């Protein structure tokens, strides 16, 4: 088990794909409120369960009696997910996998997870957001490689203006590209294997759908 890799179980949808299982296999786990429902599906026992428990279904409330709970009032200044991440960092996290961070019933939570992931990446943490079928990785100035099956779809929406963007090993490569904020130019590309990115300035997210080969 990796002592510095933590999977945060969040409330969004989670598909139990091979990539998901491989990603979390050696990690430690912390559940955020109703995200605990994913623990049974994954066959894991988190070391902590945090939240205001307003989204914990009754049938889950009595499960995992041996997992320590850290309750918070519903009127608080942070999401359950952010509280769970803070606990993981306090316990030595260097890599954070936010499982159940994408999609779900609350688009505001999904967007906040993405924004928070960029902030965490800027602080030096290695971040992966996943729903099992879809993944997201922050892209900041520097280089990044994302290992994807050939033919899978990916997009790079910018959270700001992007300058000096390079995309290699993709159907639509880019070199030293300037992406205005709000442009859709980098939406819907197709991987030819591991895709390499580099960026001179700006903030973005790489969205990937490893099992979606519709671009072939």
Q: What's the layout of helices and strands?
A:
Blueprint: E1 5-9, H1 18-24, E2 28-32, H2 37-42, E3 48-51, H3 58-61, E4 69-71, H4 80-90, E5 95-99, H5 107-122, E6 126-130, E7 135-139, E8 142-146, E9 153-155, E10 162-170, E11 174-179, E12 189-199, E13 204-209
Parallel strand pairs: 1-2, 1-5, 2-3, 3-4, 5-6
Antiparallel strand pairs: 6-7, 7-13, 8-12, 9-12, 9-13, 10-11, 10-12
At a glance:
This protein has 216 residues and is of the alpha/beta class. The chain is built from 5 helices and 13 strands.
Structure description:
Residues 142-205 form the Thiamin pyrophosphokinase thiamin-binding domain. It holds the Pfam family TPK_catalytic. By secondary structure, the chain is α/β, with parallel strands linked by helices. It folds into two domains: 5-133, 3-Layer(aba) Sandwich (Rossmann fold); 139-209, Jelly Rolls. Helices cover 20% and strands 33% of the residues. Strands 1, 2, 3, 4, 5, 6, 7, 8, 9, 10, 11, 12 and 13 form a 13-stranded mixed sheet that branches. The longest helix has 16 residues, at 107-122. 38% of the residues are buried.
List keywords for this structure.
TPK_catalytic_sf, alpha/beta, 13 strands, about 220 residues, Rossmann fold, 2 domains, Jelly Rolls, kinase
């Amino acid at each position: 088990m990796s002592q510095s890799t933590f999977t945060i179980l969040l409330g969004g949808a989670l598909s139990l794909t091979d990539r998901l299982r491989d990603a979390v296999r050696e990690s430690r786990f912390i559940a955020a409120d109703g995200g605990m429902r994913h623990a049974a599906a994954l066959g894991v026992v988190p070391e902590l369960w945090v939240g205001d428990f307003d989204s914990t279904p009754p049938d889950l409330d009595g499960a995992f009696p041996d997992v320590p709970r850290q309750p918070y009032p519903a009127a608080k200044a942070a999401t359950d997910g952010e509280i769970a991440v803070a606990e993981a960092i306090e316990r030595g996290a260097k890599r954070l996998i936010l499982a159940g961070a994408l999609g779900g019933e609350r688009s505001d939570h999904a967007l906040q997870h993405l924004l928070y992931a960029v902030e965490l990446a800027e602080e030096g943490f290695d971040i992966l957001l996943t729903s099992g079928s879809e993944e997201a990785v922050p892209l900041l100035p520097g280089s990044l490689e994302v290992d994807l099956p050939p033919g899978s779809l990916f997009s790079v929406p910018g959270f700001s203006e992007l300058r000096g963007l390079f995309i290699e090993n993709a159907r639509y490569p880019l070199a030293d590209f300037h992406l205005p904020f709000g442009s859709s130019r980098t939406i819907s590309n197709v991987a030819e294997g591991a895709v390499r990115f580099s960026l001179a300035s700006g903030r973005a997210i790489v969205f990937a759908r490893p099992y979606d080969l519709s671009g072939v």
